[in-house]
Design a protein that fits this description.
This protein has 13 helices and 19 strands. With about 425 residues, the protein is of the alpha+beta class. The strands form five sheets. It has an eight-stranded mixed sheet with strand order 1-11-12-13-16-10-9-4. The protein is elongated and about 110 Å long.
């Protein structure tokens, strides 16, 4: 969440930047400032009363020694009265603190100055393209037909066993999944990321730490009996490794990668965008996460973008990078770049990765900090990215590499699949 210091330093600037995300922040920012003013008044009064109580307590003993019992009793009564008032003020102070936190949790992160204005995906800016567009002709099959033809994925069986959006991967389809996961993990390890295998469910505190709660609870699967959440991305458990942690500056940056299945309810999704692998409720993904010093985080963001770009080039897929506009960004992000690959049979771009810098927004919620060279404690910057999400990668690989004789497997995957063609 935003720090109170950020808001107090320039409230009008904060309101203006929030508007880039389509968030009308005037009322909530003013409410936060009002609560802060009330809280400071209460704290000052409590501090003043504490000082007075100390003096009165010291005077009671002196009065008793002087035989001024009546005056001592009067002072005791005054002490009791101030203590009762202080108790009420302490309760008000606690309520103000909670109200402040509750309001801060409703305020999105400020978009970076490079974030373009806009309301929808149509306003995103293409910043780079790469790869060669396949020319398959009008007979090219979409991936759901290819999956059936080569017995790779069974969508109907998934509906029977669980429901729509939970496919079965079969034979070479399952092998391809494992190959992609291992390729992505090995590539991340080679790039200096330490692999972790996290839990696939998290507690409420972890959801709040990375900003899924209270913003996205409607999109998460909730295990109600235990009050746990199935993770929508490995970002959640991996970033929460650093919750309530103060890192020595010498240990930065921290770079982690993790494979996990991901669960998203995708409420409200319908139509052609959900066909086949385009939008699933359960899917596999490899995530990269970085904890950085603020001055290093944007160089780290460029490294992460280059890493994802390299993966797509090795897979031989045509791709493009979009800088998301304010209205299409997540609640928690300061800046996000989406990677899309070309689906030849569907004739459309499919998002396969988001790479984001959250600056101090998540770190403030997590209390993820570091101790600098001067022994001062400061908030870290957190970043993460998909490297990569599998479903739409698989969709594009199947469609873009189809031939009359079968589907050609990219060379970088063959040592993992054990085959070079799906026929």
């Amino acid at each position: 969440m935003l720090t109170l210091q950020t808001i107090k330093a320039d409230p009008e600037f904060v309101i203006k930047r929030l508007a880039v995300k389509g968030f009308d922040g005037k009322k909530v920012i003013n409410d936060i400032l009002d609560i802060d003013a009330k809280r400071r008044r209460l704290q000052q009064k409590c501090d003043s009363d504490a000082s007075e109580l100390k003096k009165l307590a010291a005077s009671i003993g002196a009065l008793m020694k002087e035989g001024k019992k009546e005056e001592a009793d009067s002072t005791k009564a005054k002490v009791a009265e101030i203590k009762e008032e202080t108790k009420k003020m302490q309760q008000e102070l606690e309520e103000s603190e909670k109200a402040m936190t509750d309001l801060l949790l409703t305020v999105p992160n400020l978009p970076n100055a490079d974030v373009p204005e806009g309301k929808t995906a149509e306003d995103n800016v293409v910043v780079k393209t790469g790869g060669k567009m396949p020319d398959l002709g009008p007979e090219a099959l979409p991936h759901w037909d290819l999956a059936k033809k080569y017995n790779l994925i069974d969508f109907e069986l998934g509906v029977k066993v669980t429901g729509a959006g939970f496919p079965f991967y079969i034979g070479k389809g399952a092998r391809l999944q494992r190959a992609l996961i291992q390729f992505f993990l090995d590539s991340a390890s080679e790039a200096g990321y330490t692999e972790v295998e996290p839990p696939f469910v998290v507690n409420e505190a972890s959801g709040y730490g990375t900003g899924q709660l209270p913003d996205k609870e409607g999109q998460m699967y909730h295990v109600t009996v235990d009050n746990l959440y199935l993770i929508p991305t490995a970002e959640v458990p991996v970033t929460n490794i650093y919750r309530d942690v103060i890192l020595p500056v010498a240990e930065l940056p921290r770079k982690n990668c993790a494979y996990s299945p991901c669960w998203r309810r995708e409420a409200g999704s319908y139509g052609k965008d959900v066909r086949g692998l385009n939008r699933l409720h359960q899917f596999d993904k490899v995530e990269i996460v970085r904890i950085e010093k603020p001055e290093d985080s944007y160089a780290a963001l460029e490294e992460m973008k280059s890493h994802v770009e390299n993966l797509l080039n090795k897979l031989g897929l045509p791709w493009r990078i979009l800088r998301l506009c304010g209205g299409d960004m997540s609640f928690t992000s300061a800046i996000t770049y989406d990677f899309e690959v070309w689906s030849a049979a569907q004739q459309r771009w499919l998002e396969v990765s988001s790479v984001s810098n959250f600056e101090t927004y998540q770190a403030n919620r997590l209390k993820c900090r570091y101790r600098d060279e001067d022994k001062k404690i400061k908030l870290c910057h957190t970043l993460n990215g998909s490297a990569l999400a599998l479903p739409r990668i698989v969709a594009s690989l199947l469609e873009d590499n189809q031939t009359e004789n079968g589907i050609i497997v990219p060379e970088c995957l063959r040592k993992y699949t054990g085959f070079d063609i799906i026929d």
